[in-house]
Amino acid sequence: xxxxxxxxxxVLKHMHQQKVITDQEFKDMNTFIDDDGTLGALxxxxxxxxxxPNAIPSELLDEILALEPVFDxxxxxxMLDALAARTTKP
Length: 90
Description:
Elements: H1 5-17, H2 23-36, H3 39-51, H4 58-65, H5 73-88
Helix pairs in contact: 1-2, 2-3, 3-5
């Protein structure tokens, strides 16, 4: 089991429950974890945040950002940049 796998799966479950990701995205990201470890799922979470930052409820965003210790630094920084851009747009 990769570091943070349980936490990542829980975040994915919450993203799915709140309809931030589709059924297929949820399935695909969990398959990434099963087959290749957590990196693919973390890339997917990062992409969702970057592409749809306004669609993520704040409590869910807090859960995602709490995954910082297991995130690839580059993906995490890209998420933060997208979130910063979101807050500065009129």
